[in-house]
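Purpose: get a first structural picture of the assembly so the mutagenesis plan has something to point at.
Setup: two entries, given in the order below. No constraints added.
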Amino acid sequence: MTGHDAMVAAARPDGAGPPAWGADEVCVVYGKTVALDCVTVAALPGQVTAVVGGDGAGKSTLLRCLAGALTPDSGTVRRPVKERSGYFPASSGIYPDLTVAENLDFRARGYGISRQVARQRAAEYLDRAGLARASGRLAGQLSGGMRQKLAVIAAMLHHPDLIVLDEPTTGVDPVSRSGLWWLIARAAAEGCAIVLATTYLDEAERCASVLVLDSGTVLASGTAEKIVAAMPGSLRAVAARPEGEPAARSWRRAGTWRGWDPDSGRLDAGPAGRHVITPDLQDAVTVAALAATPGGAA
Amino acid sequence: MSALASCSKVTKRFGRFTAVREVDLQVGPGEIVGLLGANGAGKTTLIRMLLGLLSTSSGEVALFGEPPSRLTRSRIGYVPQGLGLYDDLSPAENMAFAAAIFGAGGTALPAPVRPYARELVGSLPLGVQRQVAFAQALAHHPDLLVLDEPTSGVGPLSRARLWETIGDAAEAGAGVLVTTHYMEEAQECGRLVIMADGRVVAAGTAAEIVGNRQVIVVEAESWSAAFRALEQAGLQVALAGRGLRVPGASSAQVRRALGDLPAAVRQVPATLEERFFELTQQAPAPEAAS
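Result (structure tokens, whole complex):
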């Protein structure tokens, strides 16, 4: 499907069930660079979807389309009206010269939530995220992790139907990350659909569904189990770095080497000294990236 | 095997605040040691003392068997979190500058960087910038490599390639000290040291630190109903795919909290991250609340 239509109505594809948000066959071109090449992703209520990939994979572009901040060159975006979505851009969208409480008050007023409801929600979220004692501090003086948590709270304060979070946990320490994941789980438990970008696969594994992007194309998508099951070829654990051509299809993992063989089945017995292993999401995504690299596959 | 870097009973106080308390840490040749801890745990202060940028309040720091100095600094390769590159120089110019400072010979650009040789570093993708920073830190063949969050923000394949570079340096005999916030990355280290509130709270391999700890996993028909029930019972709940993990709770507690909700409850081995929280939350609260 082609077209020029970022649309704003709640789509109910089956006429009943809850609205399913997402993007269908979305393409975005910046000058000569194809930032997104026919990317499809669904965001379901009560579920967290992870968009995984490195720098330049197209994660932010896809998220900007879902948030309505960017109109794709072709394809369809299904998203709630602006008041029913929440967006956390990579720059976090927080006013540094307002306090934590003022930022949230301002956000709540913008969404037309009553002061009382907003304060009640803010108090609970701030408390659970470990920010309760910081509510009088200027947002510009918060640590990186605290600012990220504030930005996620600001994006979920109005109980939107869709929340889009661009790398909320990058560079954040484990304690703040755990607070962020609590906020994300809480929003999903309230029925919100969440799409978040991350470069970490242990985070993607926490999500109900995963979309792996590389240079604007989809390398893999589905549940983590499905992506692992769909990995082509077989994987072996090797004690030392392979020589010659197989080196390009090998990588270091936890002190040993993984070698990917695109041509053999997963149950084939390997030569002596090489052990076929069951891949995990990290392996499957690395293989998908290798397979997409010129010279990496065959 | 003599340690390349060694801290014994190192303490650092800033006024009344103690940032590092009696820390012992060794990095030997060929070893990759991961330093883990939340913000404020004392990791950066410890590294600054190791690099000779900060003096100790008590205890001893030794690099290659002597106190930190400009001479010992010349045997260290350091990649700070901000990478320490000049954005308005090209990769080759950055490397030439670092080589001149360390009195090292010229080094070829790594293959992934070559297509960008003439562009300004500030305009390059993050993964390529990291490759430049690594190449620059390794150009003078340091005996000790200190890396602060080496792969933050790069994709899985680029991260694997960066870890190959780190592994190659270790195999050639360098000692490596890495700080990271990510347990995925911690698994790449031969040995881990976990800090909380300025102290070392655990040290060993990832497997040794996790031990036989178990955690409860809940697979419920309605995960959101299960989440609310567990929350209301005051338990810590974390998302896990289509299920939930409840660290620190017994299966009896979890079943009681779930009540009549249809759900499968089972025990699985704890992750390093779950063990990390168990260890770091036992530590006493910091003296100076921020």
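Chain A has eight helices and 14 strands.
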